[in-house]
Amino acid sequence: MAIDGLIVLDNTGRPIIQSGFRSTSTAYPLLHVDAFNSALSKASRPQDIDPVIYVPAYNNVESPSACCHVSCGDIRFLCPVSGDDPLFAFAFLRTFIDILYEYFGNVSATTMKENFDVVYQLLEETLDSGGHPLTTSPNALRDIVLPPSLLTKLLSVAGANINSTINSGSGLGAAGGPFSSPIPWRKAGLRYASNEIYFDMVEELKAIVNKHGVTVSSSVWGKIETNSKLSGTPDCLLTFTNARVLTDCAFHPCVRLQRWTRDKALSFVPPDGRFVLAEYRYSPNPSTTPASGSASATSTAIANLAKDNVPIPFSIKMAIDLEASGGSFDITLTSRLSTRPLENLVAEFNLGEGSGAIKCVASRGLGGFGSRLGMESGVPGNIGASWAFDSNKKVLRWEITSIPPSSVWNLHGSFSTSTSVPRPAHALQVRFEIQSHTFSALKVEQLKVTGETYKPYKGVRGRSIGNVEWRW
Amino acid sequence: MSGGQYLNSITENASRLGMRLQESFSEHTRDLTIARGASAAYLDTSDDKSKNIRKQLDSNSDREKLDAMKRLVALISKGRNVSEYFAQVVKNVASQNLEIRKLVYIYLLRYAEQEPDLALLSINTFQKDLTDSNPLIRAMALRVLSGIKVPMIGSIVVLAIKKCAADISPYVRKAAALAIPKCYELDSSHLPALIGIISTLLRDRSPLSIGSVAVAFEAVCPTRLDILHQQYRRLCKILVDVDEWGQVDLLNLLLRYARTMLPRPLVREDGVEELDTDVKLLLTSAEPVLQSRNPAVVLAAARVIYYAAPPSYLSKIVNPLLRLLTTSKEVERVVLVYLLAISKTTPSLFAPFYPRFLVRTDDMRQVKKDKIRLLLNVLNIDNYSAILRELIDYADDVEDSIVSEAIGALGKCARIIPEATQQCLTALITLIRSPHDAVVSSAVMVLKYLVQVQLSVAAPTGGSTSQSPLSIISHLARRIDDIKHAQARACVLWLVGQYAQSDEPTAGPEGIASWAPNVLRKIAKTFGQEASLVKLQIITLAAKLLVLCPVDRTLGLLTRYVFSLARYDLNYDVRDRAKMLSSLLAGVSPSGLANGEEPEERGGVVLRREQVRLVLFEGKSGIVDDEPSHLDDATAMLGSLGLVTGKPVPIDGVLPDWLENGVESSLRDSEDDALPQPVAPTALSSAQQQYRGKSMTPVVLTPTGTSRPNSRNESTSARGPWTDLDKFYEDAGDEDEDEDEEEESDESQESEEESEEDGNSEGDHPDPVASHQEVLNSSASDEEDSKEENEDEDSHLLDSGGWQTQTPP
């Protein structure tokens, strides 16, 4: 498995950074850049462009290849592959982009240009010239390629040479230089004044509600994001009170899989810094018997599916009236939560080709103070709801910053279209957040740290986000 | 500000900062903002500033050099050819500054090929670097050395690789493994030496480098799977501890090994699955890897199970693959194709999980299409009504191609599940009223398809549903005015003509269904405004009706009217069709079609009515099935580019088919089996406990597993362990020094330590003799013979310090 190289394009489609492409002809990367740019210009919506673009061979000697690409901020990462699994390319791209975030905080054309020498070094260390990934663990990389921190900038401006210390093998602090750590994902010789470890459980609800208001598909995917600042080589054991609700788990390489299978506890030596410890799916009704035989597994799976639906924390009533060259709509959203507010709710409604002339009123209905406060043309008033129309994407956005428990919100208005028959999307895309809440109510029972003498500070918090498609 | 000035201002700022560094950092933050912009400035400078580069590279100051190197890299990044600076750059290869050196390496790797002579100047430095105390420097030196494409240094590179392959740092050993394919590319005559290095590296205890060794193996000697015999079981066991990218390569290699060397898993008639222990070992090793966060690893493990496991294992890959769907849009797109391929053969696996495949309106086009296909694949009697409702919803999509895909799927639904037919028909008839052309035309096409299928299957089913096919046609015929889309209209007209025959007595012309002539009447009025596609069908309809009932006068007149219009149509297809049909019909209605003109003189044959009828009606009901998609191609592998792009990509690897019996299992017996050497990084080990218990069994003296009634084989395999034992007594004192991983402080420690003791007492070196034999002999087939030949040499080889000193006979 290998990829052919990596190209970073800015938003005008010009390459900023390119890996070596030593095993291919010089025309090869250009061919892929062209293929991508022409595919992008042909696509009616930029998100419709196929992530795997077939690139025919330009002569009889070469074989056809494919261009795998992902976008990230205002730049695009292209990854040509010939003959191997595109998933490998996407996995590498994901890893590389994560590394860039780790190094620069954000990824944009400006940061790439500012730090191009660091990016080149990173590229050299993460990708062998044959297209095989080398060192991709951020902990190990930080020893080899210095992140552009303020201090290193300062020192390099001042003419001091921080790299010579690495060169001599003594390294920074107590670390024994690159690759001295016996654990590939953890830096050696770490020392912190205060030892802390934080766990963020982020759960995302993905659901589809059909036009009759019935949830046809819903699942909750969770992630345990961890930030570890622990000295030495701590051995952590994380246990949950209700580990049974976790299914379809995936783990960071540091987690001892065997231990998890045996007693559903996460035993690991954490990497330093931020990392994703585990991913899981929340299953409200875990089957008591693990799926073994295919026949019984199937029947239990069906039974589970019926019960696996997680309730959606709001309900929507939509009345949409389509006429010739336009239409009107009336959308009412009611929170179903009883204690917490829904936050940063964004509902997107694609009005279709040729739509325009939007007139809307976003208002708050019954419940709570200040009912029936009208608002014209999207100026955010003090009621906390606003709307906007993106005339490029033809998307109407309705934003509500905070929805108190069981409050009612309304958006009604009209639009016109240049085509005689309006063709809006038949669904509303709703995204929202709920702070300090998890759908699974996953509870950490204990975090035991062994192998070190200190008592670390431990923090756990939960957060929920949702992405619901509500059809009408 | 010109570039030179700008540069000066940077250096000035820098030196000022350097002097006052101790005084205060905060005071100079504004200078820093200038420094921060500096890198971006490198990318934006124009070419005239590159003149200084040469001078800077020759200067004594590291800062100047670094600056020049950054400029060069920036120029490379912009796609310039900067090979002219090669000589100056090479001089800096020994720089004490690591950052400069790294940039020099980046430069050298790009241009060494073009300047082989100058590149040779740097070789001494690299050779010196190979002995550096820093593993990073050693690895980097090897990487650059092997990257210089100068054939004459081939033997130097081989020596360097050999040296690094025995390095104490696994990182350097990994670099050595990755250098092997490059060296092979450079000069294939080093193959025997390289294979030797690969088999040493295969025995590496650290899982860090093993993935790269697999890469080297695949690139250099993919057919020499015989080298793997002794390592196979150990490789399976350390799989969980290998780094994620290595896991992918190792899994692919092990899968290929299994398919080439191991017996095929069989399902006996009573349903019991027969599974070789070694295949089982691979499957149980691959299973925990399915929990990786890396999608490529999950797929590689799923591939192993899909291609090497008996059917009962397949359910294990379902949930991990489904999990990948939520990873990212791009991954979803690729995984869906693989799911499609799997669900083609075993739809029941995914049937209960259909809610995961429901289309969202914000999915990208390809994903929507694949999801609809997938829903069709998993359709069964339990979920059809839900899937049907979904498909009807998708017909509202904003995109025409998705609409037609969804409506097409509705039709196939009815075909797969006959119970769904009624629902499908109702839905389609509702869809015909849609204001959108795409919806109507697709719906009509699908209706036509359904009607034809139903009529061709059998008459009785028509009676069971309330809407018989003929009633659908009559329904369509009555709604001809509402159907605007040209293709849909043409389609309805064809249906009307084809199925207008009726034996029931009606008010209208005899032998024709009552609704049919009315369609012709209506459509004849609008003939002029129709698309030529529709016009063609109008003529056909008229001809068909006339053949069915040549005696009806009104019909005759209508037909004549239509034909005369068609005769003078602008489109020559329409004119030609009219001419052809009117000649065909000459025998049916001699007076009919010439519209009052004198019948032309005709030559040739005039067909009778029955013959015309045969020509017009028969052989038209053939149902065209979908064009075969690339997914039907059995050779398309999971995880291949060809499957994802839908176009053949020649490089795609094809897995070999199983051997019926596999090779002798005792070939894989090695001391490692007897030796419960804990998998190296036990501190992080997620390795499986159960192997350790099993591996405590002492050296196997008699072959286990499938033994063939071949006496020679038995004798060799029986002797194998004995020679191993001889060797092991000699080797027992040797300790592996490479254990740089620390021990696990887990509760499993006790048992591990026990087993470790057992293992250590037996020595922990794998059998170099066996591998040596394989190195010496180019093919697996004569391996047994060679064992006999080499047997006497064994002790001698060991005495002389291992196989490296030997040359192939």
Automatic annotation (TrEMBL), chain A:
GO terms for biological process: intracellular protein transport; vesicle-mediated transport. Its main location: membrane. InterPro entries: Adaptor_comp_med_subunit, AP2_Mu_C_sf, AP_mu_sigma_su, Clathrin_mu, Clathrin_mu_CS, Longin-like_dom_sf, MHD. The keyword Endoplasmic reticulum does not apply. It is found in: Endomembrane system. One of its GO terms (cellular component) is clathrin adaptor complex. Residues 194-472 form the MHD domain. Keywords: Membrane, Protein transport, Transport. SUPFAM superfamilies: Second domain of Mu2 adaptin subunit (ap50) of ap2 adaptor, SNARE-like. PROSITE patterns: CLAT_ADAPTOR_M_1 (PS00990), MHD (PS51072). CDD domains: AP-3_Mu3_Cterm (cd09252), AP3_Mu_N (cd14837). PANTHER family: AP COMPLEX SUBUNIT MU. Belongs to the adaptor complexes medium subunit family. This is Mu homology domain-containing protein. It comes from Crucibulum laeve. The lineage of its organism: Eukaryota, Fungi, Dikarya, Basidiomycota, Agaricomycotina.
TrEMBL record, chain B:
Residues 683-809 are annotated as: Disordered. The keyword NAD does not apply. SUPFAM superfamilies: ARM repeat (SSF48371). One of its GO terms (cellular component) is endomembrane system. Keywords: Membrane, Protein transport, Transport. Residues 683-692, 703-718 have a biased composition (Polar residues). The keyword Transport applies. One of its GO terms (biological process) is vesicle-mediated transport. Its main location: membrane. It is found in: Endomembrane system. Residues 50-585 form the Clathrin/coatomer adaptor adaptin-like N-terminal domain. Residues 731-761, 781-794 have a biased composition (Acidic residues). Belongs to the adaptor complexes large subunit family. This is Adaptin N terminal region-domain-containing protein. It comes from Crucibulum laeve.
